[in-house]
Backbone:
């Protein structure tokens, strides 16, 4: 598969991507920036479920334990065990994320690049998510509006070319996935909150409670903090309310805002397509509602497969391949940056 | 605790931000401020106002994901006599499991570098955050008159009105002793009677 603008030099360059920014230890081999030779993800969800969220110290330790087997699996699955070196470059996420987790993947990637004597390239996790869409949607044209929604981020980005991003909107308080996690934990539905709420919402009435749709009429920024508060206050005042109704109504409020703002953003920039990215993009109601809204508008929608929405290393390898051919290798002195933001032009 | 707790009230999220913005100029490098209160009590709202009071522009978002966010403060337009706060650290220890992990964030060491730290869910972490913290406890007032109403059959709205908050401020240790009068004055517009 070839993405727009991905027809460049080094079509045969195999990049090993490594992703450890949060609670997934992942490694993948991608050839020529577009062909996924292997993609291995070892999730720590079970490890953290008991705590209702990612526990950083546990995450760091688990990444250390899983790094070597996950990388070995990815190389094996790609049939790249005999080569010397087995790949042409190593890419790793350097931020944003949990600093202790990032350091494991980053240090491991640097060590591999040194011992194999191949280039190392640092990748912005958010840019990785943008490339995830392109890996599966080769023919979407620019500008492309991407709604990136995860536990740590809620961004509306206009992609006007590879590496050319314009920020259209972002959350002013909580990320959408964070609202899911906090509300699920409050309702006793477990972790991670997205799948937990998704699983029971279908049994509830999404119109039972009219939770606030914050900033619905104002611009392209998001706010989910007040929604979380409203859920808490509503349950305090209506202890008899069915949890499935609260969950369904909460989810409807989140999805209504995400879809309204994303389609408005697409109209504002004259987008030729709309993409979802990030863990929340795996949400059933969001996928269905976004598809219906885009159909009504005659706008091509692209919903990456669920494995490509959530954290993975194929997206890191793809973004790394492009960064390498565009900017060259990164110095080994690149550090982990937990608050790294996407570079926007204007 | 040095002196009685000061009790203030706000009637909106913007009121909570204004109160926090009024407290911000009193902060000195090295201060640790613990934000205490349940889910939705207004801790991040307070942090947004506090950041505004330090002249920080741009969104102040939840630090839950990365644990600590750092913001650089612009130099004050009219520098006072004291040391200038150069950085705001906004931390959230909600996800941390042990005091050892909070200690790993090294907040007391980080604030030595001309910074002020706001720590959400800081009460549980207080033992490793130094012994001269300012406690700010936020709680929704009463049964939440004027809350965004999501009652069955309600119409919902663009954002709803915000609930009232009771904000209790008290200082532990000596660091805030000399600022007691300024603290009282800054909170005066928001005060009920002293409890």
Residues:
């Amino acid at each position: 598969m070839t993405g727009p603008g991905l027809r460049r030099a080094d079509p045969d360059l195999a990049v090993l991507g490594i992703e450890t920014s949060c609670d997934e230890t992942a490694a993948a081999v991608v050839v020529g920036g577009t062909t996924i030779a292997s993609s291995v993800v070892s999730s720590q969800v079970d490890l953290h479920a008991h705590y209702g969220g990612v526990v950083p110290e546990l995450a760091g330790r688990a990444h250390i334990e899983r790094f070597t087997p996950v990388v070995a699996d990815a190389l094996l699955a790609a049939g790249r065990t005999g080569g010397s070196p087995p790949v042409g470059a190593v890419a790793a996420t350097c931020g944003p994320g949990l600093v202790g987790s990032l350091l494991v993947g980053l240090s491991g990637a640097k060590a591999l690049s040194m011992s194999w004597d191949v280039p190392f390239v640092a990748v912005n996790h958010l840019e990785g998510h943008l490339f995830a869409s392109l890996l599966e949607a080769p023919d979407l044209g620019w500008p492309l509006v991407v709604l990136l929604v995860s536990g740590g981020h809620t961004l509306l980005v206009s992609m006007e070319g590879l590496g050319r991003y314009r920020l259209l909107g972002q959350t002013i308080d909580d990320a959408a996935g964070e609202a899911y996690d906090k509300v699920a934990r409050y309702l006793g539905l477990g972790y991670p909150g997205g799948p937990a709420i998704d699983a029971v919402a279908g049994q509830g009435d999404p119109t039972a409670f009219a939770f606030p749709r914050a900033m619905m009429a104002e611009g392209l920024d998001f706010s989910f903090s007040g929604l979380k508060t409203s859920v808490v206050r509503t349950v305090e005042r209506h202890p008899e309310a069915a949890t499935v109704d609260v969950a369904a109504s909460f989810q409807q409020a989140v999805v209504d805002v995400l879809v309204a703002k994303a389609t408005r953003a697409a109209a504002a920039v004259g987008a030729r397509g709309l993409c979802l990215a990030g863990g929340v993009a795996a949400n059933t109601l969001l996928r269905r509602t976004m598809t219906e809204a885009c159909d009504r508008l005659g706008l091509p929608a692209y919903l990456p497969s669920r494995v490509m929405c959530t954290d993975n290393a194929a997206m890191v390898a793809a973004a790394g391949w492009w960064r390498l051919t565009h900017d060259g290798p990164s110095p080994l002195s690149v550090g982990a940056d937990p608050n790294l933001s996407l570079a926007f032009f204007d | 605790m040095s002196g009685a707790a000061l009790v203030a009230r706000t009637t909106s999220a913007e009121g909570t931000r204004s109160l926090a913005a009024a407290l911000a100029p009193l902060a000195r490098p090295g201060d640790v401020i613990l934000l205490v209160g349940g889910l939705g009590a207004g801790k991040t709202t307070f942090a947004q106002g506090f950041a505004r009071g330090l002249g920080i522009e741009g969104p102040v978002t939840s630090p839950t994901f990365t644990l600590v966010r750092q913001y650089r403060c612009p130099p004050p337009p009219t520098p006072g006599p004291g040391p200038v706060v150069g950085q705001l650290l906004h931390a959230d220890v909600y996800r941390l499991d042990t005091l050892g992990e909070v200690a790993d964030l090294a907040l007391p060491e980080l604030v030595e570098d001309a910074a002020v730290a706001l720590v959400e869910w800081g009460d549980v972490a207080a033992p490793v955050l130094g012994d001269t913290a300012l406690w700010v406890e936020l709680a929704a007032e009463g049964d939440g008159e004027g809350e965004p109403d999501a009652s069955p059959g309600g119409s919902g709205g663009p954002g709803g009105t915000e609930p009232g908050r009771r904000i209790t401020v008290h200082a532990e240790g000596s660091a805030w002793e000399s600022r007691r009068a300024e603290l009282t004055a800054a909170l005066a517009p928001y005060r009920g009677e002293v409890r």
